[in-house]
Amino acid sequence: MPNKVFVIGHKNPDTDSICAAIAYANLKNTLSSEEEFIPKKAGSLNAETRYVLQRFNVDEPETISDVGAQLMDIEYRRLEGVDGHISLKKAWEKMLDKDVATLPVVGKTGKLEGVIVNGDIAYSYMDVYDNNILSRARTQYSNIIGTLNGRLVTGNPHAYFVKGAVVIASNNREGLKEDINRDDLVIVGSIPERQIICIEAGCSCLIVCGCSGVEERVAQLAEEHQCVVITTEYDTFTVARLIHQSMPVRQFMKTEDIISFELDDYVDDVRDIMKTVRHRDFPILDEHRHYVGMVSRRLLLNMQKKRVILVDHNEKTQAVDGIDQAEVLEIIDHHRLGSLETVSPILFRNQPLGSTATIVSLMYGERGVEIPKHIAGLLCSAILSDTLMFRSPTCTAVDEKQCKMLAEIAGVEIEELATSMFEAGSDFKDRTAEQIFNQDYKVFSSEDVKFGVAQVSSISKSQLNSIKSDIQAYMNTVLSSSDLNAVFVMLTDILDESTELLFVGGEADKIIADAFRMPVAAESYVLKGVVSRKKQLIPAIMESLQE
Q1: Which is it for the CA torsion 10, 15, 16, 18, positive or negative?
Q2: pLDDT in tens, 360-379
Q3: Is 456 exposed, middle or buried (0-12, 13-18, 19+ CB in 10 A)?
Q4: Residue 366 φ/ψ, nearest 5 degrees
Q5: What is the pairing mode between strands 486-493 and 498-505?
């Protein structure tokens, strides 16, 4: 997809992450007609963000869990499938014409029925001792006509040779009748008397060699005996050699244990499977198991990486899976510098502001693009969310100024919008501890220590207390099922401007005690004035770990 660029926030997205992605994609689409910028999300929406999108009538971005290269991103071979009834000769000619070793056999509904490889065709030529194989393969007479470059004199070309053996009428006339059984297919020369003997012996098909027609009496007798007569210019030896090539490919195609892939399979997974088998080409199917093309090891070298713009993060641990396999074009963020690396220089805009949405709103002004009303509503909401309605120490005068300007464009009142958002986000009813925990959860690392921090904000202290015990239990689950050394949860009271910090993990209690110069606590710390994970909690933890 060379003309598509995904604009994506971090995993467990918050309002700033989602709204910044939507607004920045809109800005880029306004400025460029050559590429399509599509906002995506890397996880489920929290209740606050869902409220914001619904309030401003904006569709929820589609989820993308991995930006690694998929088969749909490569120039796979759109080789047309063949019908199972075509002859081995036609299949072989198609292989030579398309320079392939494998042909997909596809049914009328588009579903893959099997594959035929050049080795299967070679095997069919070696099986020369079974003169009943042509009938067992239910060979259509049209295939025989095509293979021998023949002409139908009598009979139905769409009928099938289904019973009898292939016999060459080489005996003398007296012994010829004894060589032929009823329903056999007989290869005979151009002598009418021999042809009549074969028809009267009950053969179902007569291949007349070295001529383009038969006498009228032979044709009439064949009609009476319902015998198919085919003439060919080829001699008897050539016909005997070619006749096996008229069999349908379905007789020799592989139908079981076929290794196939789907369009959404990841290239790394496909490559690993290909290493275990010796095949050159593999079928690709869509989500309905319909055949769409073929892929080979060589074609995997021509993959087109997904192109992405990251907003509201620059940490590899917070990025969508597969980011190493994607081409990162830009990063727009307001956090500390993280661990993401790029192959070539990119636009990286990082400003010490309270919200990524603030940066995006500034970029609209810098590019002279008018901010649509619904986009202004999203950006305003994102700033209020990330700055806790200007209460967070991360909030700057620029954030407040841009937020007020955006509120005017959107036609909203700041305090009413913020209160409605926070109430929606604080409604923990019918939500599990896992859902609440993951609504705003990020992973960080310093030296050899890796830890996760979730933040749950509310305008009601009682609501925070009501979920505390469930959250504590879930924290232990997260710790035990991951490679983290510690897990923290900030229960932030927006109105009181304070946070109760829950923790689990070996040295978690000492890390916080050292970071905030407090006595070691048993299960939580009350941090007055601490409401920002980015500016107040993470720097203190990092400093503690480094010391």
Answers
A1: positive
A2: 999 999 999 999 999 999 99
A3: buried
A4: -65, -30
A5: antiparallel
